[in-house]
Amino acid sequence: MSLKRIDLLICCGSGCVSAGALKVKEQFHNVLKTKGLTNEINIIETGCMGPCDFGPVIVIYPEGVFYKKVTPDDVEEIVNEHFLKGRPVKHLMLQDEEEKTFLTQKEIPFYQKQVKVALANCGYIDPESIEEYIATGGYEALGTVLTTFTPQQTIEIIKKSGLRGRGGGGFPTYLKWQMVHDNPAKEKYFICNGDEGDPGAFMDRSLLEGDPHRILEGIMIAAYATGAQNGYFYIRAEYPLAIKRIKMAIEKAKETGLLGKNIFGSEFSFEAEVRTGAGAFVCGEETALIQSIEGQRGNPTPKPPYPAVQGLYKKPTVVNNVETLGNIATIILKGADWFASMGTENSKGTKVFALTGDIRNTGLVEVPMGITLRELIFDVGGGMIGDHKFKSVQLGGPSGGCLTTQHLDVPIDYESLKERGAMMGSGGVIVMNEEKCMVNVAKFFMEFCVDESCGKCSPCKIGLKQMLEILKRIDSGYGKEGDIEELQHLGETISKISLCGLGQTAPNPVLSTIRYFRDEYEAHIRDKSCANKVCPDLMHFEIDKDKCIGCSLCARKCPVSCISGSREEKYTINQLPCIKCGTCMDVCPVKAISKIPGMHPEVKAMREAEELQKQNQEE
Question: pTM of this prediction?
Fold first, then answer.
């Protein structure tokens, strides 16, 4: 650990890096060198600190002062004022709506209800330094297990803790371990599933980037408990920093004797390596992931046999998610009772979420199970942006469900969410305001699932595509009576008979939006109207002639030349060729053009004539 006067922690998770954190770091080095302060200030490149919307963020110790949206231009001021004069730079600190200034990280409301277990080191240590990990208690749990507990005793600790898989299904972690432990096979494998592919999800990526040794220690403890001799980290290729850091952790653990033969002088030996995925969402499913590691196409396989019986290379295999493994060392050190004291009766511990969408505080958070949606969205997330109202929240990624205002006080646990048509998933949380069209939202997630389906089983390959075609028809104004019921029938059937979790859960966004926002589907079908003015075919643009000044700018900028008129007669839009691009509204200097919900009568009459002609031809 640093013996210098000041520790300067710079968040270098992917989010802050994309916002310019590395340029900030470089400028600090330059300014400190110029002022002769290099030997006094310790610059530490950390993993994700959580509040992505404030990036790049830095924290300065020993005070713990938190600065947001730092740019290279701010660096000299921080050095002159904070480091040399001891005066924190107020305008770089976080302020709330009432202009209250928060000096330290601990004071910020974003952190108030968080409890860091898996994320305990993220944003606090250099993820590339094994020395810093060890200084915070790293590998102590592994040493304790190897020198104190038998494999079965280790499993019993995890069982007592109540830890469930954090990858989505919530399967009791100890059960997987127990099945492989009890298997008499001599060769066994352990896989860390880092193939995170949900839109809006970055929990596993941040853990691998910010605290790779914690995940490595977790997989080694798990391997000891189950009897596995070899392990794989399966990480999608789109996560280059995560791949780099886990590889570095493996190398440094080998160099220090913490990975390899006879670890801690015991009979336990373990080897680990990294395999990269090509970005197929279906490879997040454990059997598809196993196929991919073996060099085959990543298709799921029927169960049984389960991987615990016949997995990688036909040998007993445990597949655990990154976050699941991130909890193991802390459970060993602090005890099963400590972990089980958090959460609800059937959902113990904490959960990491990626908060995104129309809220003030987007980012990575870890909260106790059982926290309500209201607390997560409004207390931790800071509520909705601007004057907008909360409308819905999508939980569980593309396979999750959309919940509404009536669910804000529902506790976040596996059973409560499932009962209401949503799911925990891996932890993606997308918050939406009242301007969102839920039919369009359902279509978006269905498009994703159709694109990512491996096509192996017919319910998923054909059924999801049929659901998408119906959604597209509704979205474009060709919806008809019975479409809602058809979507429900297809969704329920696909959920029951698909081969893997992708197909079994893919209908959830459609089924949940029909359940809670059926009126929007009905308006799209019966009234040919999108009240939120999101679906292009179910809205139109009109020019207010009283406001129009006849400048012709809208006509000149229209890409399809559907606007005509003059200064005297004012301008009008020919609705039939209009492509609803909105350019006219954007360029109008007097805001005379408005977006109107509902299909224009001329277009509606044309559509009805087309439908009638089609029916006559079929007859």
Answer: 0.93
